[in-house]
């Protein structure tokens, strides 16, 4: 009986470690496989997955890709399908430790525990993907974030990102404390990009109802941007 109790506890602990990677919903946790069945996913997972599939089509094929704020890492594996190498970075030490074990067999992806405001890459990446990151950074620090992205990209490198569109500074949002910047729209994004030496190429939009990524702005929940490091 004691052996059975130990067995159950061991596997419950393992299960809970995996489940808590979602961090109260702020990190979408999907286990990577070649063909993910969207019918098995909730609305948040579906939208998140669609963004990575979109990015996979827009990164530089066979290039070096950064997945900045990679979360639970499944998206880094998706990006690796069209990349020579992917570096996934996340600020959460526990998450990085867990996904290093989860995806240890991948020889194209590395996961690093870093703060994006402290990275010192220079002309390394052909493409950088950074989903749901802007809103987690204080607005006065966003110019630094965009400068770090620009510095890390090679000349003409592509930057693909997303953020909640015009999210209100609600009582609930402030209570949970995950989001620090609100009311983000195309004008604000254009300004941050331009000041960092990045040029906006396209804006796309996505909602939780259809999950489809389109150019038409029809009550979107997310704005998705594609920018490029400008020639000097």
Could you give the topology of this structure?
Elements: H1 2-19, H2 43-58, E1 63-68, H3 74-80, E2 83-90, H4 93-102, E3 109-113, E4 125-131, H5 142-152, E5 153-164, H6 171-176, H7 186-195, E6 198-206, E7 213-214, E8 222-229
Parallel strand pairs: 1-2, 1-4, 2-3, 4-5
Antiparallel strand pairs: 5-8, 6-7, 6-8
Helix pairs in contact: 2-3
Q: How are the strands of the largest sheet arranged? A: 3-2-1-4-5-8-6-7
- How much β-strand is present in the residues? 15-25%
Summed up, the helix count is 7
The count of β-strands is 8
CATH 4th-level superfamily: Vaccinia Virus protein VP39
Q: Largest sheet, described in full?
A: 8 strands, mixed
Distance between the amino and carboxyl termini: 71 Å
The top-level CATH class is: Alpha Beta
Radius of gyration: 18 Å
Q: Which ranges are low-confidence, i.e. pLDDT below 50, for 5 or more consecutive residues?
A: 4-19
Give me the secondary-structure category.
alpha/beta
Task: Identify the CATH architecture.
Answer: 3-Layer(aba) Sandwich
Shape: globular
Our count of domains comes out at 1
Q: H/E order of the elements?
A: HHEHEHEEHEHHEEE
Task: Predict the CATH topology.
Answer: Rossmann fold
Q: What share of the residues lie within helices? A: 25-40%
How confident is the prediction overall: mean pLDDT?
Answer: 89
Quick gist of this model?
The protein has 232 residues and is of the alpha/beta class. It contains seven helices and eight strands; from the N terminus they run ααβαβαββαβααβββ. Strands 3-2-1-4-5-8-6-7 form an eight-stranded mixed β-sheet, with helices on both faces.
